[in-house]
Amino acid sequence: MNVSDGRTQTAGERRATLALACAGVFVAYLPVVTVVVSLPAIQRALGASTAQLAWVSDAFVLPVAALILTAGVFADVHGRKKVYQVGLALCAAGALVALCAPSVQVLWVGQALAGAGAAALLPVTLALISHAVPDPRERGRYIGLWTTCMMAAMAVPPLIAGVILEHAEWRWIFLLPVPVSLLTMAVAARLLPTSGAVGGRRLDWPGQVTAAVAITALVYGVIEGGAESFAHPRVVASLALAVVGAAAFVAVERRSASPMLDLSLFRSPGFVASTLAALTSFLGLIGFFFVLSLYFGLVQQLDTLQSGVRMVLVNVVCMLLGLVMGQVMRRVSARVLIPAGLLVAAAALLSLTTLGVDTPLWSVAWRLCLLGLGLGIAFPCITGTAVASVPPHQAGMAAAGNNAFRQVGGALGPALMGALLTTRVMDALPAHLAEAGLSGAPADQVVDTAGGAGLGAVAGLDLGADGALALAAVSEAFLDGLRWCLVVSAALLVLAALAAAVLLRRPRTRTAPTGPHGGAVVPGTGGTAPATAVAPATGDGAARPLG
Fold it and tell me: Can you say whether the dihedral through the CA atoms of 394, 396, 400, 402 is positive or negative?
C-alpha cells in the first residue's frame, strides 16, 4: 500500500524523524570497522583459514550491495517506518547470531543478517531526511549530521573492540548493536511518522532479481578472483553471469511501468556525478583501509587497540567536519566541494607512500587527519547531491541507487587491492630476501609460505637466526605493495574528482529554470526543488535564496 508524502510533518515529528535517521545509519555501520580490526582474534579463536576469514567481512558487504535497491523500493511501497523497523530487527538478530557463533560458518550467517539489515536502513534513512526536510538548502545540514553519525559508527567501535579484546572473548564485540538496535526500535515505534512515495509505485520483482544476481555475481567473482585467479572457471562463470544479469536488469527496467531504479535518473548530471564519485571513491578508499590495517598489524606489529587508535583518526576528522558541512554546503556548490575534497584525499594517500617500518605515530597521524579532511568535505556533498538531484518522491530510489554503487565499490575495493598487494609483494619478496642475505632453501621456504598461507604465516616459521631477517624482508616487500595500492587508490579519487568537475556544471542562466516536475533546478546537482527554493548559482557557485 502506498503511503502519501503529502502531509507536512509537525515540528516534533520532524525532530524525531531526523534523530532516528541518524540513529539508523549509526546502527547500520556499527559492524563495518569493528569486525575488520578484530579479524586476527577471530581467526585465532575459530581456527579459520585466510579465505574463510575474508568471507567474515564479505558476508556483511554482499547482502548490502545486493539488497539495497530492493529495500529502497519496499520502503517507497510499504512505508519507510516498516522497512526501518525491519532493518533494525535484522541488525539485532545478526549481532545475536554472531555473538553466539560456535563456528566461522555460523558467524557468516550472523554477518549476512546484519548486512541485510544495513541494506534496509541505508536508503530509508536518507529518504526520511528528504521527506522531513524538502528544502534542499536546509537539507544539506541534516545530511551532514547523517554523515557524522555514519563516521561515528566507524570511529567509536574500533576503540571499544580493542578494549574488549584485551579483556574478553572476540564474540563480545557483537554485543553493542543488540541494545542499540532494540532501543531505537522502541523509540521509532512510538515517534517515527509513516511516510512513503507517491505515484502508485509497485514492487518490481524482475528488476529486483536481476539486480541481485548481477551484483552478487560481480562481487563474488572479484572476491574469488583476487583470492585465486581471474582465469579460474568458477570466477569466469561468475563474472559472465554478472554481465548477463546487468544487461537483463537494464532491459527489464527500460520496459517496467514501475522500475526499481528509474534509468531516467541517469539523465541528471548531479545523480551521475554523485554515483560515479561514490563508486570510485569507495573502491579506492575501502581497499586502502583494508591494506592499511595489514600494515599496522604485519609491519608495525601493533595490537588491535593501537591499530584502532590510528585508523580512528580519519573518521574522527570526518565526524567533526560533518557538524559544519551542512552550513558550508548552503554557501558553496557541490561542483566545488566534491572535487576539492576528493583531491585533498588523493594528496593524503600519496603522502602515505613514504611510510616505513618505523614511521612514528605523529607522522602517520597528520596524513590520516588530512585524509579525513578531504573525505569529510566530499562525502556529505556526494550524498546530498544524489538526493537533491531528484524529486522528493524519488528520494528513496536515488538514495538506494547511490548507496548500492557505493557498497559495490566498497565490496570490490578489498578484493582488488588485496590482489594488487599480493601480486606486488610476491614479485618483490625474492629480491628483498636476497638483500637481507637469505637464499637457497630458507628463502624458498619463506616465499612458499607467504604465497600459500599468507604473509603473517612467515612469523611461525622456524628459521633460527634467519627469522628476523626474513620478517624484515617481508615488511619491505609489503611496503612495496602498499605504495602501489596507495597510488592506485589516489588515482581512483582523482578520476572521481574529474568526473564530478565535468558533470557538475555551472548553470548558464541567471533565472531559475523549470525542471521536468515544475521545480527550479538545484545548482550543482542537475535536480529539481520547489520553485521557491533556490536561484541559480552566483559567481562563487553557491546557491542563494530567491527573492
Answer: positive
pLDDT at 461: 74
Q: Residue 9 carries which DSSP code?
A: P
Residues 337 and 381: beta-carbon distance below 8 Å: yes
Q: Collapse the DSSP code of 521 into the 3-class scheme (helix H, G, I; strand E, B; otherwise coil) and give the result.
A: strand
Helices then strands, each counted (H, E), the chain: 15, 2
Phi, psi (deg, nearest 5) at residue 529: -145, 170
Q: State the Cα–Cα distance between residues 68 and 173, nearest whole angstrom.
A: 25
Q: 104-132 and 361-388 helices cross at what angle (nearest 10)?
A: 50
**Of the candidate ranges 267-281, 334-348, 367-381, 382-396, the one whose mean pLDDT is the lowest:** 382-396
* Beta strands 528-529; 520-521: pairing state: antiparallel
Q: Provide the grid cell at 330.
A: 548552503
Q: What angle do CA 131, 136, 140 make, to 5 degrees?
A: 95
Q: Among 396, 70, 62, which residue's Cα sits nearest to residue 208?
A: 70
Give the model's confidence band at 450: pLDDT under 50 very low, under 70 low, under 90 confident, else very high. Answer: confident
**What's the rounded Cα separation, in Å, for the pair 196 and 128?**
9
**Grid coordinates given for 372:** 579525513
Which residues does 178 contact at the CB level (< 8 Å), separation at least 6?
A: 92, 95, 96, 99
CA distance 427 to 168: 39
Q: For residues 157 and 456, which has the higher predicted lDDT (pLDDT)? A: 157
**Separation CA 437–CA 442 (nearest Å):** 10
Provide the pLDDT confidence category of residue 199 given band limits of 50, 70 and 90: low
Q: Is the pTM of this model over 0.85?
A: no
> Is the CA virtual torsion 118, 121, 127, 130 positive or negative?
negative
Tell whether the model's pLDDT for residue 245 goes beyond 90.
yes
Phi/psi of residue 10, each to 5°?
A: -70, 170
8 A C-beta contact, residue 94 and residue 114: yes
DSSP H or E stretch at residue 112 = helix 104-132
Q: What letter would DSSP give residue 174?
A: G
**Where do we find the cell 549509526?**
26
Judged against a pLDDT cut of 90, whether residue 221 lies above it is answered with no
Hey, how many other C-beta atoms are within 10 angstroms of the C-beta on 439? 11
With a CB cutoff of 8 Å and minimum separation 6, the contacts of 418 are 226, 227, 287, 290, 291
Residue indicated by cell numbers 535564496: 545
The per-residue pLDDT for 518 is 39
**Contact present, 357 and 37 (Cβ < 8 Å):** no
